[in-house]
Amino acid sequence: xRSSTQSRLKATALTSTSAQRQSxxxxxxxxxxxxxxxxDNSDTRDLYSLYLRTRGYTVRTAHDGxxxxxxxxRLKPDVIVMDLSMPALDGxxxxxxxxxxxRTRNLPIVIFTGYPARAIHDGALEAGADAFVTKxxxxxxxxxxxxxxxxxxxxx
Length: 156
Fold this sequence. Notes:
Blueprint (H helix, E strand, L loop, with lengths): L1 H24 L8 E5 L3 H13 L3 E5 L2 H11 L3 E5 L7 H10 L8 E5 L4 H10 L3 E4 L4 H16 L2
Parallel strand pairs: 1-2, 1-3, 3-4, 4-5
Helix pairs in contact: 1-2, 2-6, 3-4
């Protein structure tokens, strides 16, 4: 399973960089929901943002937690997909900052990490994350979690 997941991720990643550049050169057109992906790995950002765009989402990306918090405050996305381990500001502390600010307190946050340990999962939820996804995962699996937290957020 892991090998086939990696193969699918690599195949999608090959086309994602040029698609990302094209989308950044065009004026922003807002899709149904705005997803902010915060991850220090450019391949990860490109891959999942390309997939979510093809599914009708508007996607913005940030390369670390500090930039992610700044963009979240400015853009007020519908959902944030946040890596855990990043330079400048990690995902746990970025999530805590977002939860302390009245403007972003209720934004759904999906922690997206390569660390599957239960303690890390519990720490992310304790910090205020709404969901926890272990990567690498199929883009469809991430979208399913994004959709789940969006639906839960709308029903509050």
